[in-house]
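Archive entry. Fields below.
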Amino acid sequence: MSTERERDDESRSDRAGTFGDYGGQYVPEALMPALQELEDAYERYVLENEDGFMDEFRERMRDFGGRPTPLQRADRLSERYDREVYLKREDLLHGGAHKLNNALGQVLLAKYMGKERIIAETGAGQHGTATAMAAAHLDMPCEIYMGRTDVNRQRPNVYRMRMNGAEVNPVEAGSATLKEAINETMRDWATTVERTHYVIGSVVGPHPFPQMVRDFQAVIGDEIRDQIQEKAGRLPDSVVACAGGGSNTMGTFHAFVPDCANPRFADGSSGDEPREHVDLYAVEAGGSSLEIDEEEGLAPNSATLSTGTDGVLHGAMTKLLQSTDGQIMESHSVSAGLDYAGVGPELSHLVETGRVTPASVDDDDALNGFHRLSRLEGIIPALESSHALGYLEEEHDRLGDLVVVNVSGRGDKDLETVLEETEKRDLEAAPDVEVFDS
Amino acid sequence: MSEYDSDVEAAIREDYPALITYITAGDPSLEDTKEYVEALDRGGSDLIELGLPFSEPIAEGQTIQAAINRALAAGTTPEGFFELVDDLETEAPLLVMTYYNMILQYGDSEAPRASDSDAAKPQSKPDVRPFVERAAEAGLSGIIVPDLPAEEAEPLRAACDDHGLDLVFIIAPTTEGERLDTIMSHVSGFAYVQARLGTTGARANVSSATHDSLARLSEYDVPKAVGFGVSEGDHAAEIIEAGADGVIVGSALVDIIASSDDPSDAVDALEAKARELKRGARRGADSITVDPEDTPEPEQP
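PREDICTED_STRUCTURE:
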């Protein structure tokens, strides 16, 4: 792990838990001792492999999770775009998305810390199901908070969580989606903090969560780095990942951040040799429009990195969709997993410094991306991942000769939404969905 | 001039045992809030906390969450809040309780948006000073920020010092050791002692955690006020008797506002509730001095 620690030091400013101007610990006082305890456990077990924690984590990710996931050459996409396109198949991880990397890591850590209970928030239900699976696997009681709106539109995931023995608590406040679920999980944690661990689902929240979740997810990029060099003999020109809170994004990018012609991002290990440069693209949900309705408090998108402004939400300074007064906007995306008004503080920092290029793909192009991958490659991607594929279609010319796209999850959970949304639109890549009407 | 560092500290020391009341500004309207604050002032509040509503109130229980939602639905803005405070003339000093993002964004109305044509120009970083300047100008005496722990508070503390405002910190049941020492050595106004883990909200009993906390904090010679769950005169008596200098009551008052058919009905009920709480607090203070078993709490300078 020593090289990862060195990389961390490069991308962080002096104060612990910050990435440039972003990050920090903006939480109620009652949680501060728990964050210190977690920081200590993270350093000992994750960074220093105390008691063989990381060995056990990797072994369980292999045997229970199915790691490593393949890096697959996408033959028909490569032909279509006239360049080498590779897909990182996180959709093949147990549970159907990258979420297990983090959930299993944190539940195992909670066990090492002697905690007795697991709580988590979930939006689309992917993090909730991953946490419920990990908790069942490691024999920990588990409660999941989920907005009522999401409970209603993600039924299959609610059942999966309950099958694995988790309690699902619907949250009725506000728009009853991810933001409210996080609020309510934080309230539970502030009440039960002494024996409960909060498994936060993305690289968001107070320090040490953004860094720790990234480290659990960094296996994605570490594997890509080895696999692409084996298959293509060199590093890719570009790596593309979708971004909501940003856990698959940071997990995919982390290993490549130092691969930069600009020496400020280099890890110092390569001396005077010129480095191969890898461009990093974080693709957000453009929703139906990038405009903001200040009056109504609505942002019909979740393009926080592209359009957000600096502020504090859920424990961290980061980029946010907010009104000029500082009220948080209701965000939107056809993909529930990207539908969030904040984003991980490290991504905000990497965008601010120019290392990561933010981009956005609207609902229509994401749906086209979904249909295209399904038909051309026989892979049904999550609507979240479909944003990265939509970007590939639109902007492949700028991505160089060798491109890696992270397929962060599979799309089985999205079929109903996709049918419904496809019927409303005239999408070039869609099959005829009317045959499903009876 | 008082012998104390601030009018907040003076209010707690001189009016011992102190009653601190909280309501959410703009619930159900800023005009009603003005009447309510005046009623709480008449009823014997020694300090009044006014909540400036934020859309993500993670430290609040359901009662105050609902009040914040009503206030936001009524269109309450920071500027409207400050105009209300401009208009208020109370005997009790006023504090604002809000979340950190509201303080960061105030006065930053020129932040570029994607919809602006010049979105490419560098964004100005959020700054706490415009909020603090406006708070001081409106006559507020202090600020409480439930999502700002001491470790992140330096910019706001500096701005408050410049303008003579207290920045009140919360002491949780989990605050211990070195962190407790550090926070207690920087107490500004008073130490807000959180009676129990969890969120705000009226409860039926005073928790044993309250007694434990007050015992743990007894060695620190700073004014201590206890909040989270306090709703009745008897609670106030018990908490003062256990060694607190004041009690903080919020959700029980918000409940009165929420359950009134007509906003004006709440005015008398709020005044009466404040009197009940203040009487309870006095009862607690009296039982300290008359009970020969207990050593009377020395008058603290």
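CURATOR_NOTE: Chain B has twelve helices and nine strands.
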